[in-house]
Specification:
Helix content: over 70%
Family: Belongs to the FPP/GGPP synthase family.
Pfam family, one: polyprenyl_synt
Number of helices: 15
Mean pLDDT: 90
Cofactor: Mg(2+)
CATH class: Mainly Alpha
CATH architecture: Orthogonal Bundle
InterPro entries: Isoprenoid_synthase_dom_sf, Polyprenyl_synt, Polyprenyl_synt_CS, Prenyl_diphosphate_synthase
Number of domains: 1
Keywords: Isoprene biosynthesis, Magnesium, Metal-binding, Transferase
Number of strands: 2
Low-confidence stretches: 1-5
Distance between the termini: 21 Å
Order of helices and strands: HHHHEEHHHHHHHHHHH
Oligomer: single chain
């Protein structure tokens, strides 16, 4: 795997991409002066700065395979990060996970108030689709429509929202889920958005279907490995390391693959998924090397 030589270049690329995405978000979410200024302030607070920008990085690297313009790719990356940010704002609300800490700073409802947090999430979600639908994203309306369709599907009732509902139902019932049910919950809650992030560059680049499917499959396996790694971190890392409250899955009695399989088997499962993810990139040349490294990085990270 040669992680020693590859990790710094990947981390450098990810940090550079995160900075570029923050710059793009800064332009797409301007600070307003009018009476609704607190809404924009909360949107910016939620979306700009912090986070690994895994989803945005996937968009940029996928787009690079097909020579898509950086500015177009950054718009799509920003739209997906807005949807991700909105989901975190709403997830953290007292009615959902009731969290005070996110990305090492107070959650939006703590920094502002609950009503503002709800509106900021709503506004981030809708603004993401404005960005995708605008001509600057792609000159072909069919491409823009496809981006809107795929992102709304990944975020909607058969995606992220559906997954969050399953999560809440499982917690309310107090009955631990079995392995297939946990897999489905995680596929919907986090997996679908990561899948689309990996696929989006191919949509932008009007890539052949086989290549689009390969990137989607890569995203699916990467997302599943990422989620297991997240659960492993929740079970083993400190709040200082991750910048969010850890150990909460066990306290809430949440079913995770780590809880079901134990740490060792969960790690093996994540490694299997990473091997599969890398295999999906066999048809791509050296340009996909950062995506290959990312698969390894996902299960070795500590935050």
């Amino acid at each position: 795997m040669g992680m020693t030589t590859t990790a710094p270049s990947l981390q450098g690329a990810m940090a550079a991409a995160a900075a570029e995405i923050d710059q793009a978000l800064d332009l797409l979410l301007p600070a307003e002066e009018g009476p609704e200024a607190p809404l924009f302030a909360a949107m910016r607070y939620a979306a700009i700065g912090g986070g690994k920008r895994l989803r945005g990085f996937l968009v940029l690297e996928g787009a690079r395979q097909f020579g898509v313009s950086r500015s177009a790719a950054l718009r799509v990356a920003s739209a997906i990060e807005m949807v991700h940010a909105y989901s975190l704002v709403h997830d953290d609300l007292p009615a959902m996970d009731n969290d005070d800490l996110r990305r090492g700073k107070p959650t939006v409802h703590r920094a502002f108030d609950e009503a503002t947090a709800i509106l900021a999430g709503d506004a981030l979600q809708t603004h993401a689709f404005t960005v995708l639908a605008e001509e600057d994203t792609h000159s072909d309306p069919a491409v823009r429509t496809e981006l809107v369709r795929c992102l709304s599907k990944a975020a909607g009732p058969r995606g992220m929202c559906g997954g969050q509902m399953l999560d809440m139902l499982a917690e309310a019932a107090g009955v631990p889920l079995d392995e297939p049910a946990v897999g489905r919950l995680q596929t919907l809650k986090t997996g679908k958005l990561i899948e689309f992030s990996a696929e989006a560059g191919a949509v932008l680049g009007k890539a052949p279907l086989a290549q689009r499917h390969a990137l989607l499959a890569y995203g699916r396996d990467l997302g599943a490995a990422f989620q297991i790694a997240d659960d492993i971190l929740d079970a083993t890392a400190s709040t200082e390391e991750t910048g969010k409250r850890t150990g909460k899955d066990a306290v809430a009695g949440k079913a995770t693959l780590v809880g079901l399989l134990g740490l060792d088997r969960a790690r093996l499962q994540a490694e299997r998924l990473v091997t599969q993810a890398r295999a999906h990139l066999d048809g791509f040349g050296e340009r996909a090397d950062l995506l290959r490294m990312l698969a390894d990085f996902v299960i070795e990270r500590r935050s």
